[in-house]
């Protein structure tokens, strides 16, 4: 209001402005008593155009809330008054928009939220600053706000003001923000969490506390609730066409089932694996990795049966050739080998098969297509060994890998 008053004062003080003639018109409603028809309506003459004249009249306390005004233009002055009003309105909009710029992004506020210390910022801007610090970005006071701002209401007064003063600017801002959040078509449209392994059809529990991944998580929840998880490549081993990158290029697409945000902004996330993928190209968006990925599919059942028949038909191998013996086992035998091993380990009260583990991952599956992923999720061996499952394209191949783990454990070579 102070900014508007300055604009009005400047135009009201201009010498030579023709006076604007105004006449009061009472609105006859339940809140206004009838006025005698003999009483003459009040008239005013104030220089500066309709906007300035009306503001001046209201600021002097002479314009009742329930009163409308009729404006009369002197002959030949209608266009002049209109030009003055257009100029004044443009200056008012410019002055007021400066007052509603966000102090983080320096754009006009979008979905403004006011902090307990009295500073108003864009909702997305405030959420992103809370990813880094639980302090007001303007005055540095501590903010007792949920980091996601999920329960924090928008400032309805400022929202209404902005929608009334500059609807076109707000619409342009909405489109600009949507464009920033929108991934390129067919390009880097999959966010990546580079941390550990996940497996299809298995739960993965994550604790997210880095600011870049808080942002990624928030965007995933607002979008399709999916992101890829990859194992960290600590030695920068070359990954196919990608070369030496900081992640292994086979990963699992996860779907967010539940997310709990703690008071310090840390998120506890429950996800479930959907399918495996391979990274074809990668980049960075606001600090976290994004990629173009290719889904990894198994061969057809007919092709798998053909491969199984060829391997079983191979000549017998020497007694000490464990790998050769596993290759000649039927797929059903490989599954039985794994399930029998689990039964023996449960009989020995193996700590990795305690009830709390089974409550999370379920009982050993009868489905050969699921067993290897379940087994890798509960077996306490290195992620580098488990990663061997990620690039496979047959159920049999995965069961042969799990059988090799079992033989090595039984021979105490681990």
Please describe what this structure looks like:
- The strands form three sheets. Strands 6-8-9-10-11 form a five-stranded mixed β-barrel. Strands 2-1-3 form a three-stranded antiparallel beta sheet. Strands 4-5 form a two-stranded antiparallel sheet.
- It has four domains: 2-99, no CATH class; 112-181, Zinc/RING finger domain, C3HC4 (zinc finger) (Herpes Virus-1, 2-Layer Sandwich), CATH 3.30.40.10; 190-295, LON domain-like (Archaeosine Trna-guanine Transglycosylase, Chain: A, domain 4); 301-410, no CATH class.
- The termini are far apart.
- The model has no long low-confidence stretch (mean pLDDT 88).
- It has helices spanning 2-12, 49-59, 78-99, 123-132, 156-165, 167-181, 211-222, 301-312, 322-327, 331-347, 355-361, 368-378, 383-386, 395-410, and strands at 19-26, 43-47, 67-72, 112-114, 120-122, 190-195, 203-208, 226-231, 250-261, 267-285, 288-295.
- By secondary structure, the chain is of the alpha+beta class.
- The protein is elongated, with a radius of gyration of 35 Å.
Q: Roughly what is the average pLDDT, rounded to an integer? A: 88
Proportion of helical residues: 25-40%
Quote the distance from N terminus to C terminus.
76 Å
Cross-sheet strand order for the largest sheet: 6-8-9-10-11
Shape: elongated
Number of helices, counting only DSSP H or I runs of 4 residues or more? 14
- Low-pLDDT regions: none
Alpha carbon gyration radius = 35 Å
